[in-house]
Design brief:
Blueprint: H1 12-19, H2 50-64, E1 73-76, H3 79-84, E2 93-96, E3 99-102, E4 105-108, E5 117-120, H4 129-145, E6 148-149, H5 155-167, H6 183-213, H7 225-230
Parallel strand pairs: 1-5, 3-6
Antiparallel strand pairs: 2-5, 3-4
The structure holds zinc ion (ZN).
């Protein structure tokens, strides 16, 4: 993770900037590629903005066409706990309790908790419902998509897909250029643009095929993506360039 401190001094306009960029981590959660019916994310007592969380979960399920079958716990944490967990102040939220497979083998994420949780930075409380909705949908997309992340799945895919799901209900676009954006925010915007182009040429079905194929012999890594797409009839001119996108 990058670390860009001084959150306490961030003005509201700064919060708005990263709200559109979603959060880092993306370390999988909940019923990856699962099917079957779950009730979505329930709103137990103590969950912040229960209606917004519920709406976000339903929007994610509609965008992806599948149900969230494992319910994450959504928690608004204070700044001391946020910092104590090792998260940087420019992150609006993180999803923990996920299983990540790296080159060195499987591990739990930094929080080490088997329980899938969406942790929200206290400043999320100061966002508008629309801005907060982007953050919630981004994290809940990880809960739907990423129970276990294979080493072959690049960062740009994981985060770009979460951003695509997060933005889909409103059609909003993140700011990808201009002064004041961090490199991380540009990474998110570039990743989303790549996923969105794949959606334009192949629809949601193609996104789901690619997502399911990472780490399999059909798509052993990012370099295999052009061939994977060519086998599905896509021409080179249709394919997004993935050069320069963040791998991990
Ligand atoms: Zn993410």
């Amino acid at each position: 993770m990058t670390c860009e401190p001084h959150f306490r001094r961030l003005a509201r306009r700064d919060l708005l900037r990263w709200a559109g960029a979603g959060a880092l981590v993306g370390l999988g959660a909940c019923a990856r590629r699962g099917s079957g019916g779950g009730p979505g994310v329930a709103a137990p007592p103590g969950v912040p903005w229960p209606v917004e969380v519920q709406d976000a979960a339903l929007a994610v399920e509609r965008a992806w066409g599948r149900r969230i079958t494992e319910q994450p716990e959504v928690v608004l944490v204070d700044e001391a706990r946020w910092a104590g967990a090792g998260y940087s102040d420019d992150q609006p939220a993180v999803t923990t309790g996920l299983r990540v497979v790296t080159a060195r083998g499987a591990r739990e994420d930094a929080a080490g908790s088997p329980r899938v949780r969406v942790l929200l930075h206290p400043a999320v409380d100061r966002l508008s419902p629309e801005e907060r909705g982007l953050v919630l949908r981004h994290e809940l997309a990880h809960c739907l998509l990423d129970r276990e992340i294979p080493a072959a799945e690049p960062w740009w895919w994981r985060e770009g897909l979460a951003e695509w799901v997060a933005h889909r209900p409103t059609g909003s676009q993140p700011r990808g250029e201009g002064e004041g954006l961090t490199e991380r925010q540009r990474d998110y915007a570039r990743s989303l643009a790549t996923v969105a182009q794949l959606h334009r040429v192949g629809g949601r079905e193609l996104l789901q095929q690619v997502d399911a194929a990472w780490g399999t012999p059909q798509l052993p890594g990012p370099t295999g993506l052009p061939r994977f797409l060519a086998r599905r009839g896509l021409e080179p001119g249709d394919l997004p360039s993935t050069s320069g996108l963040r791998a991990d």
